[in-house]
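Record 1 of the preview.
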Amino acid sequence: MHLNPYGEDAVNLAADLANRRPTRPTELADRCRAAGLTVQGPATPEDLRRTLDVLDGWEKVVDATDERERAELVNRMLAAAAAYPRMTDHVGSGWHLHYRDEGQPLGGVLSSLIAVGTALHLTGRGMQRLGRCAVPECATIYADTSRTGRQRYCSPRCANRDAVRRHRARTL
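->
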């Protein structure tokens, strides 16, 4: 059985790529592989360019303050990237769904993966489940996959730093 590859892993990959933008096609491919994505063929400069453009659009989704605006931005990403769902066993690891045409280059795969993964993440977990760290000097993006849905920080380090800051402000 395959779990949905377009959910949590897709938004976590998008956040990772957005927070630390790849600068070379080989870096993009290596980071995708490290995240568990099957990369067929070498990544090209066009794959990198398209991925960076997708990440620019995805950051607008993250920064949207209104649910309707966020939904409209995701819908635009879906319209540009997704195809009708299809079953595939392209790597011989079991049948699963793809929301893209077969034979897409890495940039197209990531465009579809990020758009569909974000839509499934937001509709399945909640429209507020993407954000930036609450520490003012940290702009790191996170995908809230917590059980409670109340994540405000990108990491325990930032959460602890903010708690110490608030505590010190109260004791002065």
